[in-house]
Amino acid sequence: MALAPKPKDFPRIRAALKFYQVASVITGVMLLLLCIEMVLKYTPLAVELELGGPRGFLAFVPEGTVVAVNLSTGILIAHGWFYVVYLFSDFRLWSLMRWPFWKFVLIALGGVIPFLSFFLEARIAREVKGYLASREAEAQAASGTAGSEPVEASH
């Protein structure tokens, strides 16, 4: 029999879900920026994004000629760190929900497969919120029926 989350953990699960949702969106956006940056850099275009260089505030420059801040590298580094945060949020939600390991791996893939984090974020949020609502309804029904027999009063 699979272990179910404890009702006392429901507030922590809600907080973990919110953290996961934010991390998922940030990681997904960073992954899309990284994909665009890779296309710009490793195709015949061969350009990088430079910030504050001699060509203007933001400029595409030929690969290897960046003299100011290399935003292409910055995007790569930022995505890497946000992916670590995303994995932490995934682990936190996974462990509180007591899901099987394959689900942790599936959610982790959301940070490396473009657009997957957006689809998973919506699906996981719907699943967790539905689960919590059903468990709370069951608990409410169980506590509502216990000891709620009508009592007649007489004068």
From TrEMBL:
Q: From the record, give the transmembrane residue ranges.
A: 20-40, 67-89, 101-120
Superkingdom, according to UniProt?
Answer: Bacteria
- UniProt keyword terms in alphabetical order: Cell membrane, Membrane, Transmembrane, Transmembrane helix
Domain DUF3817 as annotated: residue spans: 17-126
Q: Topology versus the membrane, per the UniProt entry?
A: Multi-pass membrane protein
Entry keyword annotation includes Chloroplast: no
Q: Which InterPro entries match?
A: DUF3817_TM
Protein's cellular compartments: Cell membrane
**Protein's name in the database:** DUF3817 domain-containing protein
The organism encoding this protein is Herbiconiux moechotypicola
